[in-house]
Amino acid sequence: MRIAFYAPMKSPTHPVPSGDRQMAQLLIRALEYGGHAVELASELSTFGREPDLDRFAGVEKEAAGEVARLCELWRRDGKPDLWFTYHPYYKAPDLIGPDMTAGFDIPYVTAEASYSERRNTGLWARTQSLVAQSVRQAALNICFTRRDREGLSIAVPDAVLDMLAPFIDISAFSAQPPAFDPSRLVCVAMMRSGDKLESYKMLARALDRLHHLPWTISVVGGGPARAEVMALFAGFPPERIEWHGRLEPGAVAGILSGAAIYVWPGCGEAYGLAYLEAQAAGLPVVAQHIAGVPEVVVSGRTGLLTPPDDSEAFAAAIERLLTDDRERIMMSDAARRFVHDERSLEAAAVRLAAMLPKVLNA
């Protein structure tokens, strides 16, 4: 098929790396792996961090311009077979795809659409209604987490829903088998305010309970809150912490494969591709049983998930894996098998290849 792809939050060509950009790129690769021709329909971002009516009016005007541009393009070069929108939600609704697919009578598909009743205030109530309309119009809505599926089914009871588990490209991890420093911890996360900073705060509190153990930690990531994050760990001996800053994916894979345990609380995580990357490298995970984290970590098999907002339990889980070599090694093997067997790009391509023809034949 010829597929028009659109990511209203962040284009897959955006220069700043993030989990959202990575997932958009992975979806395109999975679709192409299945033999489809994927074209980026638009790079317009509708994302707004705050509910700004004037800003949104400007975005709507830009979206109308994109609709006009695509209409002219498709009339000249022919329309695609399907439109695929990744991650429409209240802060980044799809203002292009629904009009294009209705006007040209082609199927509309969303992936990782989400809806939250508690956001129905002010401008967000309006943008959520647009998301609900998109979900209702879609021939298929692909959900990555049970939480998202439940939210959509409540908001739009007649929505067509299916599941695709979060996945990664495992090639960087297949080439280098794990070589653990048994006392080395690692985390990979952007440094910004909000949930990321809260996770760093919880990690610092947990590690503060573990001075009696000989751990060290590699911290990979950068961002506007870097100074605040480093201040959280200022009381630790400097030799305990290695600050790597933002790294390219290949370098991250190397750091992961040299550690023993991936530690990241995951406050508010949609699911977290870094958890899958860590497990692909053979690292068991310590995280909270919160949000979408259980979708990517199998508690008791590939890692330990602790109760939300309990830094004491989080510290105890880290200590458990630092001091029990047998359990850590068993979880390491299980984590690697889990991602390589079930959460690879190739597995996702097979799943998508089974879903999409049904949309065309509906």
From TrEMBL:
InterPro entries: Glycosyltransferase_grp1. Transmembrane segments: none annotated. GO terms for molecular function: glycosyltransferase activity. The keyword Nucleotide-binding does not apply. It comes from the Bacteria. Keywords: Transferase. SUPFAM superfamilies: UDP-Glycosyltransferase/glycogen phosphorylase. This is Glycosyl transferase. It comes from Phyllobacterium phragmitis. The lineage of its organism: Bacteria, Pseudomonadati, Pseudomonadota, Alphaproteobacteria, Hyphomicrobiales.
